[in-house]
Design a protein that fits this description.
Blueprint (H helix, E strand, L loop, with lengths): L6 E3 L18 E4 L10 E5 L7 E6 L13 E6 L6 E3 L11 E4 L4 E4 L1 E2 L5 E7 L5 E5 L3 E2 L11 E5 L6 E4 L18 E3 L8 E4 L2 H4 L2 E4 L9 E2 L19 E4 L8 E6 L2 H4 L2 E8 L2 E9 L10 E5 L8 E6 L12 E8 L4 E8 L12 E6 L8 E6 L7 E8 L4 E9 L15 E2 L13 E5 L4 E5 L4 E10 L4 E2 L8 E3 L2 E3 L3 E11 L6 E10 L1 H7 L4 E5 L2 E3 L1 E10 L4 E10 L10 E8 L19 E7 L1 E2 L13 E10 L5 E2 L4 E2 L5 E10 L4 E2 L2 E6 L3 E6 L5 E7 L4 E7 L3 E2 L4 E10 L8 E11 L6 E14 L4 E9 L26 E10 L5 E11 L10 E9 L4 E4 L10 E2 L2 E2 L2 H6 L17 E2 L8 E11 L4 E10 L15 E10 L12 E6 L18 H27 L18 H7 L11
Parallel strand pairs: 35-46, 49-59, 67-70
Antiparallel strand pairs: 1-34, 2-33, 3-4, 4-5, 5-6, 7-8, 9-12, 10-11, 11-13, 13-14, 15-16, 16-17, 17-18, 19-20, 20-21, 21-22, 23-24, 24-25, 25-26, 27-28, 28-29, 29-30, 31-32, 32-33, 34-38, 36-37, 38-43, 39-42, 39-44, 40-41, 40-43, 44-45, 47-48, 47-50, 50-57, 51-56, 52-55, 52-58, 53-57, 54-55, ...
Length: 1058
């Protein structure tokens, strides 16, 4: 029998939902018209044995009489009418301040000051109807010359009786007790004979606690002087908060007083032991947090239900490392083993700055009737307007847990409330349902809020069956008809009964509930293995409305046959039977709850395991699963391609076909496993429905696919499955695609896994790349002396950067296929020298490239011309420039090698260096340029004259990617000629030798026009066509670069190549 206890909160006279059983949506608001009266500064629920309960609400700043303003007062408010509040009858409160005659001086003086006395700053009551309240700012004047803020308390024996005035400091030494502040701390005993009145201002704020009601002499007080020889209690404010509790002995109440400023502002509490009715020794508990005001609030409560009270202490000024005055609460438990106290700490559930969690505390009593007592903690500035947190003891955690949060912003009865939770009354029943209700003050907005607590019942449920397990065959069967088809499924009996019990609840309750079969599998896959039959159809949910259950008497709610699917989808997961209770309709009988609402679902469950008996005489299924499969590839729309490789970025899908069969006894719940590499991920299964689990195995960085094939696979039965996988670019990391698969089954009696068959597909990874390299050259102008372009000796520049022609080599590299290429090497063959008698070198000057992804890097060791080498012969460029016999294409005194110098036929005359292109994506390209210069350059022809020599460069390319095999590439081995003949139709970069016979036509072409020009000029001058004007001085004018270029356009014959 399963006994599952769930709290169901039956909320009366409302259609709203509540948090637990405190009604925050139908709270009752009491408010003073005087917003400055601090109405709600102290609150108590009052009850005696005669009159109905009422609410006592202190307003210490309320108006008094016309004679004495702002005395403060305590109001008695009706529980049933929030607008009816009347002040209590306090002796002499409304009379004028007392006047006395000074016999020595023969004069009259004012003996007291009741204005601003803050009556109602504290209120205490007991169940016998006694009331005590105080005004800590009441002033005695002595002989009229001084003001002594002794404070004053009023004791009432009943709600309608007059008060007795209590002034504990009046008979004491005026100097030591000039500012007692009596009544800030206050407590009353059960018979009202020995109230405790705290005077935290006595003796220069060391503080004392007065005991009893007779203060004719300054005696019967507790003082730190009795237990603090080290004077740590100086300025301690002893008596700020006072309470009683059975801390050690259940038969006697101990007295506890707080000292918020004790021990240099760490605070503390003093415990006065009551042994055999006599106050004996004192225990001190010191605070641990500086300036936290340890003991600002103080109560005792038996929160864990063991018969011994715990001490609950508020530290509202506690600040954490991050928040200021967020507040804290500590709970102290007495340990008889340790003969001392241990403590636990409650932090603010919603911490914010200045929330003051722990500002007020209250013992609410057992509001949920489960044993122990709930307690409330006020945070009057939490959420800015105030929150009250209610905690209950958890026996599972041995720690208080949050039971309910009452946020002032959620109250329906009041708006614009402030400091909600500054005061909280101990719980007391006001509506007669034997459940403690709660009164909470919000003095800054002059409010007090009454909240009712609703009864609680506990449900006791029982699921019972006529079988211990569910069998799928060879068990009891039943004849049924489903849609006209007769069946004989396995069946068994289900019985569910329900009852309730609770305190102060009726004998019967009206509930509605759902019965759900196979909840786990239904939630997971919306399929089920067991079912009810209703109207010739399978159902797995039954709704039972408005069922009457009794208190303490189990009532059978359902007794039904449950049927088992002949071939259930899952034989491992237990079948869960689930009952869920929800709110009922109204019932007009007086024995039933009316307008019943249930907070939250109340659920009950029972599980049964599935057993199979078709595994031979030994009941152990020994299966023999066989799996075969094939793999194919698809480019698009699952049209397979006959590839022998996995081609990256061309294969979009991988198609796996498997055939699974069983050769022996029944295989129970066969599971197909598929391990996929990162290059592939699961897409779907074609044309079949299987239960699929997909998870990542981090150890081998692969994905594991688990597929539940069937509930069972009998002998000679086949299952065919087609799985579609999708590919990703991560396949670049591997040389092979490896797919592992297996099929296994499990036996109930022997639950070890049986790996009946497994296999693996290993497919080589190939890349498809076709690389296209294009190249062309472009030369810049030669550098020369602009002022004297015919001065051959001035061609050479004095700086290295401006020596010779600059040649721009432009390249375009494109990847025309589907696979990315991570590294491509391009080899450049450049000539070492020219065909003149002087040596020159081509060398790399700079590199530029344009691409969004690919990167170009060249071998740096070949960038500098000083490091160029010709095979095994190193070259020092500076020396070779001056040399006439080292590494020339032909020598001065010998015949040329040939008219055409080719890099393949004369490799010694060339240097080879490489550039690398990284990460060239599929269908992408990159453009880059390299620049070279010519050492010891020759002049450029001024007219198209055939050139004797032609020199070529070559560029080759290969793929450099370790461990990667490409299906196809186009090798690049192109020759680019640097020298051709010059003609108006075909102008290209030209290097040639300026010999003596080349200079003759140049001299003639220049001198003849010049001589003719001089002759014509002289003739015209002689004939008087123009005259030279003489001036006083000669202007020297230097042509600008633009003017010079305009005049020398005919000299610049180098242009861009085709």
């Amino acid at each position: 029998m399963d006994l599952l206890f769930f709290i169901i909160l039956l909320l009366l006279s409302t259609n709203e939902s509540f948090e637990n059983n405190i009604d925050v949506h139908n709270s009752v608001n009491y408010q003073s018209l005087d917003i400055t009266s601090l109405f709600g500064y102290s609150v108590k629920i009052y009850s005696d044995s005669i009159s109905p309960p009422s609410l006592l609400i202190g307003a210490p700043r309320s108006e008094g009489s016309p004679f004495v303003p702002r005395t403060g007062n305590v109001f008695s408010c009706s529980v049933s009418n929030s607008s009816f509040c009347i002040p209590l009858n306090f002796t002499k409160l409304n009379a004028p301040n007392e006047r006395r005659q000074d016999t020595a001086e023969v004069g009259e003086y004012i003996a007291e000051r009741k204005d601003n006395m803050w009556l109602g700053v504290s209120i205490e009551t007991n169940l016998n109807g006694h009331i005590i309240t105080c005004g800590h700012r009441y002033v005695n004047t002595g002989n009229g010359d001084n003001l002594y803020m002794h404070g004053q308390c009023h004791f009432l024996s009943g709600l309608n009786s007059s008060s007795d005035i209590l002034q504990p400091c009046k008979s004491c030494n005026l100097y030591a007790y000039y500012q007692c502040l009596a009544g800030l701390g206050l407590n009353i005993d059960s018979d009202g004979l020995a109230p405790l009145i705290g005077t935290p201002g006595a003796k220069q704020f060391t503080g004392e606690v007065f005991y009893g009601r007779n203060f004719e002499s300054c005696s019967s007080q507790f003082s730190p002087e009795n237990f603090d020889p080290n004077e740590n209690g100086e300025d301690a404010l002893f008596g700020f908060s006072i309470t009683r509790g059975r801390l050690i002995n259940r038969n006697y109440e101990d007295i506890i007083s707080s000292m918020p400023r004790y021990n240099y502002l760490y605070g503390g509490i003093a415990i006065f032991r009551n042994e055999s009715g006599l106050i004996s020794n004192t225990l001190i508990i010191s605070g641990e947090h500086f300036g936290a005001y340890f003991g600002h609030s103080l109560i005792t409560s038996d929160i864990d239900g063991d018969g011994i009270d715990e001490i609950i202490v508020g530290l509202p000024n506690y600040s954490s490392n991050l928040l200021s005055e967020v507040g804290l609460v500590q709970i102290f438990f007495y340990s008889s083993v340790l003969s001392g106290f241990t403590n636990i700490t409650l932090h603010h559930p919603d911490p914010i700055d200045f929330a003051r969690f722990g500002y007020s505390l209250a013992n609410l009593g057992d509001i949920n009737k489960v044993g122990g007592a709930e307690f409330a903690i006020g945070a009057p500035f939490g959420s800015h307007s105030g929150i009250v947190y209610i905690f209950t003891w958890s026996s599972i955690h041995s720690f208080p847990i949050l039971y309910q949060k009452v946020d002032s912003n959620s109250l329906s009865s009041v708006r614009n409330i402030s400091s909600f939770g500054s005061s909280i009354s101990p719980g007391l029943d006001v509506d007669g349902n034997n459940y403690e209700d709660i009164l909470i003050g919000a003095p800054q907005s002059s409010n007090a809020i009454l909240m009712h607590t609703f009864p609680v019942i506990y449900l006791d449920s029982l699921f019972s069956f006529n079988t211990e397990h569910i069998y799928t065959r060879n068990s009891d069967t039943c004849d049924i008809s489903l849609n006209g088809i007769g069946l004989e499924p396995v069946c068994f009996q289900l019985i569910f009964s329900l009852s309730f019990f609770g305190k102060s609840t009726p004998k019967n309750a009206n509930v509605s509930l759902d019965i759900l079969l196979d909840k786990i599998l239904f939630q997971r896959s919306y399929r089920f293995r067991v079912y009810f039959v209703r109207e010739n159809e399978k159902v797995n949910i039954l709704r039972i409305p408005n069922f009457i259950i009794g208190q303490g008497e189990p009532k059978i709610i359902i007794s039904e046959l449950v049927y088992v699917e002949s071939n259930p989808i899952d034989l491992f997961t237990p079948v869960e039977f689930h009952a869920s209770v929800f709110e009922s309709n109204l019932n007009n009988s007086s024995d039933y709850f009316k307008d019943v609402k249930i907070l939250g679902d109340t659920s009950f469950s029972k599980t049964l395991e599935i057993r199979n008996v078709n595994c031979g005489a030994d009941n152990i299924c020994e299966s023999d699963l066989v799996i075969t499969g094939n793999i194919s590839f698809s480019q698009d729309r699952l049209r397979t391609v006959d590839y022998q490789y996995f081609i990256v970025n061309e294969v979009k899908h991988v198609v796996l076909n498997f055939s699974i069969s069983n050769k022996k006894e029944e295989a129970l719940s066969p599971i197909f496993s598929l391990h996929l590499p990162p290059a592939l991920y699961f897409n779907r299964i074609l044309d079949q429905e299987f239960r699929i689990h997909n998870e990542t195995t981090f150890l081998n960085d692969s994905s594991l696919i688990l597929i539940d094939l069937a509930p069972s696979l009998v002998r000679d039965e086949f299952i065919f499955i087609t799985i579609i996988l999708s590919s990703s670019k991560s396949a670049y990391q591997f040389d092979n695609i490896i797919i592992r698969f297996s099929v296994k089954s499990i036996n109930y009696e022997n639950p070890s896994l049986l790996f009946d068959n497994s296999g693996v597909f290993i497919v080589p990874v190939k890349r498809s790349a076709i690389l296209q390299l294009q190249a062309f050259l472009q030369t810049d102008q030669v550098y020369y002396n602009k002022s004297n372009p015919f001065d051959i000796s001035s061609i050479h520049s004095s700086t290295l950067q401006s020596i010779g022609n600059e040649v721009t080599h432009s390249y375009s590299l494109n990847n025309l296929k589907s696979s990315d290429v991570s590294r491509i090497r391009i080899n450049f063959h450049w000539p070492l020298g020219n065909i003149s008698s002087n040596m020159f070198l081509l060398y790399l000057v700079s590199l530029q490239y344009d691409s969004t992804s690919a990167v170009v890097r060249c071998d740096e060791k070949y960038f500098n011309y000083l490091n160029l080498s010709s095979h095994d012969h190193p070259i020092n460029a500076k020396e070779s420039i001056r040399s006439t016999n080292t590494y020339r294409l032909f020598k001065r005194d010998t015949s040329p090698l040939s008219n055409y110098i080719d890099c393949d036929s004369h490799p010694d005359y060339y240097v080879v260096f490489s550039c690398h292109v990284f990460n060239l994506s599929a269908s992408q390209g990159i453009k880059f340029t390299v620049k070279s210069r010519v050492f010891e350059p020759t002049l450029i022809a001024l007219s198209p004259i055939p050139v004797d020599w032609q020199i070529s460069t070559k560029v080759s390319m290969d793929i450099v990617e370790a461990g990667i095999d490409f299906i196809s590439t186009i090798p690049v081995n192109k020759k680019i000629f640097l020298v051709t003949y010059i003609s108006p139709q075909d102008i290209s970069l030209t290097y040639f030798v300026l010999q003596w016979y080349h200079i003759i036509p140049i001299i003639l072409s220049v001198s003849i026009p010049f001589v003719l020009f001089i002759v014509i000029f002289i003739a015209l001058y002689v004939c008087g066509f123009f005259k030279i004007k003489k001036r006083g001085r000669i202007d020297m004018h230097t042509a600008t670069d633009e003017e010079f270029e305009e005049e020398t356009t005919n000299l610049n014959v180098i242009s861009n190549p085709d």
